[in-house]
Write a structure and sequence with these properties.
single chain; about 400 residues; mainly alpha; two-stranded antiparallel sheet; two-stranded antiparallel ribbon
Length: about 400
């Protein structure tokens, strides 16, 4: 083994060890890579169109992004706050409607046997005459004796509703009195969490800016580690990875926005309750391919069932129509053949990512699978390139089209 090979192996092992040791603090770096990858085309366009430095283009991109987020928040947060407040207020009635009306209606539609409704309120007690002239008293839910000026009143026991504001206020006061230190600790934790979030956001945006500004130098630092004969292969590999990630990340983000807009239009047209909240929920869930669409459909259909069966059918049909457009038009046109990920690989990566890393694993599973597939295809090409047995199989041996790495 040559000295260069020893150096590369030692450097690689040291890099892997550093990643393993520092894995708990890698989130800002991963998010910075994602932000840099998404914003690089915008920065490049501004840099070329306005003929300004790359640092100035990054600042202009951040300014546009902040203005857009502030405007979107100013326009949507008040409405969303109102819708969330309405949802919290109507949640008990919504659950009761689904249980007592929507569920039996769906059971009848599907031909299932209707469930037997259990009475929530039974008699406090029942008096039954016996053959010998005596009476038997059966206590149902219990009784409560209340003394008055004229005697005693027998009544069912009072059960405080969890939505009784007076009872809730009294219980809250007692809890605060007995858990004052816990409340103080909770407040400190909230302040600490907000401060950490602000700090992490600032660090992430700064890292993303550095990655965008110095991307050529970063790439060149990797190129010089490779033998001169292999630098063309490295450029081809980076191009293949770039096209795959462009399809998975940038394409999926654009599709999420289109899905969210179409969902909002359909939900607003049918006057679905809480449609802004449900549309934003559908947009966020669309970040996770396949499973996100299924999960976001459930609350929308449930809310529609509380309005009418026709609304539920329309909402379900609208959602299915959107995802048919996504599968047959948006994916081929926006993503094209860049990602080339088979649906089985997508599902497999989602299941593995969610199982080992939870929600974050599900979000990053498909991009990681795209990188793994790009590495496999590249090294398969390198191995087969010199083998005469594969000389006629262009699908296996043709390298990716050379292109600029963004």
């Amino acid at each position: 083994m040559t000295g260069r090979q020893i150096f590369l192996w030692v450097s690689g092992l040291a890099f892997v060890a550093a990643i393993f040791i520092a894995h708990a603090i890698l989130l800002p770096f991963v998010l910075a890579l994602l932000i840099a990858y998404v914003l690089t085309p915008v920065v490049t366009w501004i840099e070329g169109r306005l003929r300004i430095s790359r640092g100035g283009a990054v600042c202009a991109t951040y300014a546009i992004l902040f203005v857009f987020l502030y405007t979107a928040g100013a326009l949507t947060i008040p409405r969303l706050s109102m819708e969330v407040a309405n949802l919290r207020r109507d949640l008990p009635a919504l659950v009761k409607t689904v249980r007592d009306e929507a569920a039996p209606r769906m059971q009848q539609l599907l031909g299932a046997a209707p469930s037997v409704k259990r009475a929530d309120d039974g008699p406090a007690l029942t008096v039954r005459p016996q053959p010998d002239g005596s009476y038997t008293v059966d206590v149902g839910r219990g009784i409560e004796l209340t003394k008055t000026h004229s005697g005693f009143v027998v009544a069912p026991p009072k059960v405080a509703s969890p939505f009784d504001l007076e009872h809730l206020g009294e219980e809250s006061r007692r809890w605060l009195e007995s858990n004052a230190m816990e409340v103080v600790s909770m407040g400190r934790a909230i302040v600490s969490g907000v401060s950490r979030l602000v700090f992490t956001t600032g660090i992430t945006l700064m890292l993303a800016a550095y990655l965008i500004i110095t991307r050529e130098r970063l790439f060149e630092s990797f190129r010089v580690l490779v033998h001169p004969r292999s630098r063309g292969d490295l450029t081809s590999l980076m191009g293949r990875i770039d096209r795959g990630l462009a399809g998975v990340i940038r394409g999926q983000l654009l599709i999420c926005l289109v899905n969210g807009a179409l969902t909002a239009i359909g939900f607003a047209a049918v006057k679905l309750k809480y449609w802004p909240v449900l549309a934003i929920l559908a947009t966020m869930f669309s970040l996770v391919p396949i499973f996100g669409a299924i999960l976001s459909s459930v609350p929308a259909v449930i809310v529609a069932l509380t309005q009418s069966l026709g609304s539920a059918v329309f909402v379900l049909g609208w959602i299915l129509g959107i995802h048919q457009i996504e599968a047959n038009f948006l994916n081929p046109k926006i993503m094209g053949d860049a990602a080339k990920l088979h649906p089985v690989l997508v599902i497999f990566s989602l299941l593995v990512g969610e199982h080992h890393f939870g929600v974050a694993g599900a979000l990053f599973a498909v991009p990681v699978m795209s990188i793994v597939q790009s590495l496999f295809l590249h090294f398969r090409y390198v191995v087969h390139r010199e083998d005469p047995a594969f000389a006629g199989e262009s699908l296996l041996t043709s390298p990716p089209t050379a292109g600029r790495i963004s």
